[in-house]
């Protein structure tokens, strides 16, 4: 059973029901903003409106919650689905669409800055090495997925090299966005990067 932390209701009505999706969204944004090590369990329970036993019951421990939040981030950001690139005839068009979409997402004022997947756990305490490895594996998986997609326009070696390059560009764009770069600057970087993948 999920127990919501008691909150006073001005209407005196029934307590609100547990919304797992909304709670996960809250956790995702906290981790996105502050990183895994920058968010305490107490901050999570307070922000999500859950008592500690209920958070454990719904999501497991903090590590499991973080990885589920990363999964959610990946789905929302399209990190596991590049099928939209199939609509383009040339590699230039496909790559520009990918990088412009990245620029738009990274500069969206309604979300946190930077990229949870590309910037998460780049440095961490040894106790959290498994989580850092998990995120590294996910970044590697994205590069492999991108290489597979680029094979529509490029041969195997060129596709693999292009995917490594574009992954580095995307990571750099994430850092730029985190430091305050707006959409215009990120799209400028996108246009420059397209020239290198041919």
UniProtKB/TrEMBL annotation:
Which stretches hold the DNA-binding feature? 40-59
Q: Which InterPro entries match?
A: Homeodomain-like_sf (IPR009057), HTH_TetR (IPR001647), Tet_transcr_reg_TetR-rel_C_sf (IPR036271)
Residue ranges annotated for the HTH tetR-type domain, each copy included: 17-77
Q: PROSITE patterns, from UniProt?
A: HTH_TETR_2
- The domain of life is Bacteria
Quote one Gene Ontology molecular function term: DNA binding
Q: Where are the transmembrane segments?
A: none
- Keywords from the UniProt entry: DNA-binding, Transcription, Transcription regulation
Protein known as: Transcriptional regulator protein
């Amino acid at each position: 059973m999920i127990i919501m932390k008691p909150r006073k209701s001005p209407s005196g009505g029934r307590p609100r029901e547990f919304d797992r999706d909304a709670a996960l969204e809250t956790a995702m944004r906290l981790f996105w903003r502050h990183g895994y090590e920058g968010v305490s369990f107490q901050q999570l329970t307070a922000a999500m409106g859950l008592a500690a036993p209920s958070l454990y019951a719904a999501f497991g421990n903090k590590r499991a919650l973080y990885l589920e939040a990363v999964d959610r981030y990946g789905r929302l950001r399209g990190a596991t689905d590049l099928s939209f690139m199939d609509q383009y005839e040339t590699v230039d068009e496909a790559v520009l669409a990918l990088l412009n979409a990245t620029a738009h997402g990274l500069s969206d004022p309604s979300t946190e800055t930077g990229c949870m997947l590309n910037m998460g756990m780049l440095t961490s305490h040894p106790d959290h090495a498994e989580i850092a490895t998990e995120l590294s594996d996910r970044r590697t998986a994205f590069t492999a997925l991108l290489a597979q997609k680029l094979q529509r326009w490029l041969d195997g070696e060129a596709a693999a090299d292009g995917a490594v390059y574009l992954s580095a560009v995307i990571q750099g764009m994430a850092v730029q966005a985190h430091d305050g770069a707006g959409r215009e600057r990120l799209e400028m970087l996108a246009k420059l990067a397209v020239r290198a993948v041919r």
